[in-house]
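Sequence of STE24 endopeptidase (Acidovorax soli).
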Amino acid sequence: MPTPDAFSPSTALTFAFAAIVCAGLLLKFWLASRQIRHVAEHRSSVPEAFATRIALAAHQKAADYTITKARFGLLEMALGAAVLLGWTLLGGLDALNQALLGALGGGMVQQLALLGAFVVISAAIDLPVTLYQTFVIEQRFGFNKMTLALWLADLAKSALVGTLIGLPIAALILWLMGAAGPLWWLWAWCLWMGLNLLLMVVYPTFIAPLFNKFQPLEDESLKARVTALMQRCGFAAKGLFVMDGSRRSAHANAYFTGFGAAKRVVFYDTLLRQLSPGEVEAVLAHELGHFKHRHILQRVASLFALSLVGFALLGWLSTQVWFYTGLGVRPNISLDLSVAAAPNDALALLLFLLAVPVFTLFIAPLFAQLSRRHEFEADAYAASQASGADLSSALLKLYEDNASTLTPDPVYVKFYYSHPPASERLARMPSPARA
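Predicted 3D structure, token representation.
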């Protein structure tokens, strides 16, 4: 690890980074502890508003599931902080870069090897965490339906798809960083956004079917009901599909996928088994509410804007020596003026991706609050296009079937929850109506 001079920008970044990592970890631990304590304190009885609709056993299962995940999350957070510091201030990324420079020399091959090695090592570190979450926690509470063979097959497919898509994108961005001049970041942003829009089109047709089976919705009565709803809402989709979600999990969901003419509606088979036709219609109306209020467009626009700022910031930081040394990496600078230095582009990308979440953690509640507001707006729209009573019933069933606690800690909710808790959401549910 480099030893920057006292009071230099490099030293300031080192201390700021270490301090914010520690502060963020303490904040996460405090929030998780509040959540665990609050849920445990309310485990013995169902909240009065739900007493006639939720059994005590279901309430206690949700509490136990929430507490178990939160406690394991404490270990996961500690591991994440240790790995982050290991990659940066403790010299892990520097050691990996120096080893690959010695083996491959500088150039595109070495840079891609650095990115690839980082991804593989990070995935290997996360592997035990993912296995425990799936085959211990999810299994214990009856949600996991995957066999180890299916899990391994998914892992292999994900690795293959990630390599086939990610490697060319990484190579293009690295090439732009080295060849497109000072404004490379603008060209890279245009490329990134174009590829994201392309993936939104091709994902439903070519990528998602690699992992799940999608069958056209066969229930003619439900199909007619859903089609009529979409016509009332002015929404067109390429098709209505049922996904074999039960092959992997007992959790239920429904979603829109695709972009433009490639949009399609997807129902988990578990959702169709758990909800009545009226409740399915109400859930779909909620999703249509996001389109009606342009929430999806707002999120895409926000992604465009934030990624532009991110690329611009990366463009500047990648030229600052203190950015590398302050985060524990020796930049590839040759002391021999007759020898060209190896490019630092892959190092800059990795350091940026490692550091940004640390500095953006404290603005997360703002995005969570905006997301919860969108959910309330979508609920109101759903109640105007379908049955408010069916929407309330469907949401309560989904909370119960997914073991979502009815008594989360209010502070934890404000910081993390992208969806309002059941008590707030159902209390604000509009009266049943049909437009």
